[in-house]
Design the sequence.
């Protein structure tokens, strides 16, 4: 039997995307191993979910490190030591440092609740509602040094209704996030994703 494709999930909060990945693994729809859940916050739902499911957890408190570089180094070392194949950001609220990006070049992905490059950064669903767009959605992309700016892997469109609020739109987008993220992880784990500059090619 071949070695399982190992992923690490980095989360700062609620962890519903993490939970969805876990559910897809349990139901046999995704054949990867979640090796570790890393959080930059001490008490998060994501950490709880990991513990309940016997997944290793690591909490990195940035305040305990003398510098941002040392914090990044600790994360990179942890991921290297565990021989992680793919790092999945799921509601991780910190910018990923250059050292981690260089160590895991093209092996860090993120999910964002908008159709990038529209509405990057915080409150993407609110931005979409306030702008009055007819369609929003979610995007899985590779992480680069910018904010939500890396090469796009998959996107799912979600129509915006006239009476949508930030909350109602966020809820419908989240349902799609939960499917899209696992799909992207599946494709990458099967070697079906190739990146060339800004463009991502998928061999289905
Ligand atoms: C999601 O909307 C994701 O797109 C964004 O942060 C949120 C995290 O939610 N990056 P959760 O912690 O996975 O529930």
Sequence:
């Amino acid at each position: 039997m071949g070695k399982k494709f190992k992923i690490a999930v980095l989360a700062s909060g609620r962890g519903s995307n993490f939970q969805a990945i876990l559910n897809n693994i349990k139901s046999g729809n995704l054949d990867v191993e979640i090796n570790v859940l890393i959080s930059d916050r001490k008490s998060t739902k994501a950490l709880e979910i990991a513990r309940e499911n016997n997944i290793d957890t690591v909490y990195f408190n940035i305040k305990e490190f003398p510098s941002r570089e040392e914090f990044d180094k600790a994360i990179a070392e942890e991921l290297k030591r565990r021989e992680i194949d793919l790092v999945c950001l799921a509601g991780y609220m910190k910018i990923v440092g250059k050292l981690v990006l260089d160590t895991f070049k093209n092996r860090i992905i993120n999910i964002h609740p908008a159709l990038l490059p529209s509405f990057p950064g915080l409150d993407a669903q609110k931005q979409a509602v306030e702008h009055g767009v007819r369609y929003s959605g979610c995007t899985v992309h590779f992480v680069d040094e910018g904010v939500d700016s890396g090469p796009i892997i998959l996107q799912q469109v979600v129509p915006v209704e006239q009476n949508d609020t930030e909350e109602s739109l966020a809820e419908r987008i989240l349902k799609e996030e939960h499917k899209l993220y696992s799909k992207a992880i599946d494709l990458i784990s099967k070697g079906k994703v190739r990146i060339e500059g800004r463009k991502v090619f998928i061999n289905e």
Q: What stands out?
A: The two ends are 23 Å apart (CA to CA). The chain has two domains: 1-105, 110-204. The longest helix spans residues 166-189.
